[in-house]
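Question: what's this shape?

___
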Amino acid sequence: MNTRRVAIVLASLAAVVIMSITCFNFFCVAQQLVYTTISVSDARAMIQSSSNLLVVDVRTPEEYVQGHLKGAINIPLSDLPLRIGELEQNRPILVYCRTGYRSAQASSILVKAGFTQVYNLEGGITAWINAGYPTVTP
């Protein structure tokens, strides 16, 4: 059996869509893998209203201790593939970094691994702080 896998990424303002296409000989199956990029105000509302939300900071430990979102766990982007098993697939996850670049990469990793409720904080903790929202330090 000849099997090929191709990933296609389509970007929009609200979400990044990752299409996973698996081809078996003469037919292909497409699966849509999505994460949603949300504003700091939407993220704050989500944090305040959802007790089940897991907040993941993908910055380095050194960045994390300088200040992070209350209740966030630190899993650096470089460690995420090795530590992905620590996360619950059916739980909503808000991912952030300093500016949004690493968290977008982390969000893609999560949806490719089967996570279905992944939210990327647009602008990262920098946008969070600029909006006047609080951070905590250990």
User: Anything to note?
Assistant: The first helix runs from residue 40 to 49.
